[in-house]
Write a structure and sequence with these properties.
Number of helices: 1
CATH superfamily of the largest domain: YVTN repeat-like/Quinoprotein amine dehydrogenase
Strand content: over 45%
Distance between the termini: 37 Å
Helix content: under 10%
Radius of gyration: 24 Å
Strand order of the largest sheet: 2-3-4-5-6
Number of domains: 2
């Protein structure tokens, strides 16, 4: 029984430390963490227009932006959004000295550390095969604007393109972008082609077409064989909000944006719809106003239950799979810049990216969990592990030699035990994936802990 209780203590403590470190007061608060800016031409800072953010299986966050609205830039966080590093940005040359103008990035897809791709205007695209550290610039033969990209795995993916003379071109690769070939794609119902694209496991793909000029209905095109053939299209939600789609799996997804409040008016509500049958039927789960002209602009889930949505001046969250949404009152748009895009890392941690600004925000929690560190049952002592970040080993600075031969546990940020052993002066961490971890040692009513990053 004592051993079982000790394991429970480890797990409880992990989440407690994680939550407590994320709180700035008794409740969580959104804070500006960083700003993605680049000093250009020796005279001004080029600010970022954020395009898309993605979290990888290794719990690293990548965000794509356009510097000065025209030059691709990739930044990465390896510590759950707390600090950021610019990995790559395209240069803008001085006017009159170089005819080259960088092509605006429109979308990106980060599969794993061995493959990522950015697609841009004028047929340009970038590929990285070393966890985003270096990017090779390429160009499709047709030079068409590449609008959407999505991959099923590191080998198979598709790119949707647009050109004034050929509104829809679809390119596919089955060898990580080494070779691309054109496929027929879905047959259009109306409009100028596909506006939204989602690849889901087992070869499933949704390509969503919209035509507001005719009947304001979205049409779903579905493929189950990696885009080679497409089923008959079916309509999405009637009177859809002006916005986007987000799918968690083949059947479970959301449509978000804002409905027009009056005819010929720019005023819009904040609207989220939910589907559990692949877009055949929809249920409205959020329909509010609060402020005019601020539709839902971004939505993301960390798992099937916990999600976050941004309406620029308001943040909403859900803990029941999107059935109900609550206003996050810890975000105050009167005191902070507007948040355009949001990413939920797990049930207690989110990051946000500025709307019309280069700021990156972080919020420790969307729940109101009591600070576990105030408990009287245990004493907590932080120990030093180094180097931090670590690559192969961490060394432990222990002043209390009584725990030298005790069992240790290493947790990832999801609370899972990834390594156990008997404590020594050093611990081998080379086999751990890149990310943030907690080292936990228990001795009676004392719990020793250390937080470290594995590169």
């Amino acid at each position: 029984m004592k051993l079982i209780m000790k394991k429970i203590t480890f797990i409880t403590f992990f989440f407690a430390i994680f939550t407590a470190n994320s709180f700035s007061e008794t409740e969580s608060r959104w804070q500006i963490i960083d700003s993605i800016q680049v000093f250009w031409l020796g005279s001004y800072y080029a600010e970022s227009d954020f395009v898309k953010a993605q979290i990888t299986k290794n719990n690293e966050i990548f965000v794509l932006s356009n510097l000065s609205y025209r030059a691709p830039c990739i930044a990465k966080s390896s510590d759950m959004g707390n600090s950021w590093k610019i990995l790559f940005h395209e240069q803008i040359s001085s006017i009159g000295t170089d005819n080259f103008i960088p092509s605006k990035a429109n979308d990106f897809c980060f599969i794993d550390s061995s493959f990522a791709v950015i697609v841009c205007d004028s047929g340009y695209y970038y590929i990285s095969r070393d966890n985003g550290e270096k990017w090779k610039k390429n160009r499709f033969e047709n030079n068409h604007r590449s609008w959407l990209v999505s991959f099923w795995d590191k080998d198979k993916g598709i790119v949707f393109q647009y050109d004034i003379n050929k509104p829809q071109t679809i390119l596919k690769t089955v060898n990580s972008g080494k070779f691309w070939y054109e496929i027929s794609g879905p047959k259009k119902v109306r409009g100028n082609g596909v506006s939204y694209l989602y690849t889901i496991g087992n070869g499933i793909c949704y390509a969503i077409e919209i035509d507001n000029k005719v009947d304001s209905v979205y049409y779903f095109h579905k493929s189950t064989d990696y885009g080679e053939t497409w089923q008959e299209p079916y309509p999405g939600p009637k009177i859809p909000p002006f916005g986007n789609f987000y799918f968690i799996n083949e059947n479970f997804g959301f449509n978000f944006g804002g409905k027009s409040l009056t005819e010929n008016s720019a005023a819009r509500s904040k609207t989220i719809r939910r589907t559990t049958d692949g877009g055949h039927t929809w249920e409205t789960v959020l329909d509010t106003i609060i402020l005019l002209n601020d539709p839902i602009g971004s939505l993301h889930f960390s798992d099937s239950l916990h999600g976050i949505a941004s309406a620029y001046s308001n943040i909403f969250f859900t803990t029941d799979g999107g059935k109900n949404w609550k206003l996050d009152e810890t975000y105050n748009y009167n005191k902070l810049p507007l948040i355009g895009k949001v990413l939920m890392i797990d049930s207690t941690l989110s990051v946000g990216f500025g709307a019309n600004s280069s700021y990156i925000f972080r919020n420790g929690s969307l729940t109101h969990i009591k600070d576990f560190l105030n408990t009287k049952d245990f004493n907590f002592k932080e120990i030093i592990s180094f180097p931090n970040p670590a690559t192969s080993k961490i060394n432990i600075n222990i002043s209390d030699e009584s725990i030298a031969d005790h069992e240790y546990s290493i947790f990832d940020i999801k609370g899972r035990v990834v390594k156990k052993g008997i404590l020594n002066q050093s611990i081998d961490v080379e086999e751990l994936n890149t990310g943030t971890y907690y080292l936990i040692i228990s001795e009676g009513d004392i719990i020793y802990y250390s937080k470290f990053v594995k590169e």
